[in-house]
Amino acid sequence: MPQLSERTKPFTDSIIRRMTRIALQYDAVNLSQGFPDFQPPEALLTRLSQVCSEDFHQYALTWGSKNFRHALADKQSRFMGRNIDPEQEIVVTCGSTEAMMAAMMTVTNPGDKVIIFSPFYENYGADTILSGAEPIYVPLHPPTFHFNVDELEAAFRQRPKALILCNPSNPCGKVFTRQEFTIIADMAEKYDVFVITDEVYEHIVYTPNQHTYFATLPGMWERTISCSSLSKTYAITGWRLGYIIAAAPVIEAARKVHDFLTVGAPAPLQEAAVAGLRLPNSYYDALRQTYQQKRELFLSGLDDLQIPHTTPEGAYYVMLDIGEFGFQDDLEFCQVMARDVGVAAVPGSSFFREDIHHLVRLHFAKKDETLYAALNRLENLRKNIPYRKETV
Ligand code: GLN
Question: pTM of the prediction?
Answer without folding.
Answer: 0.96
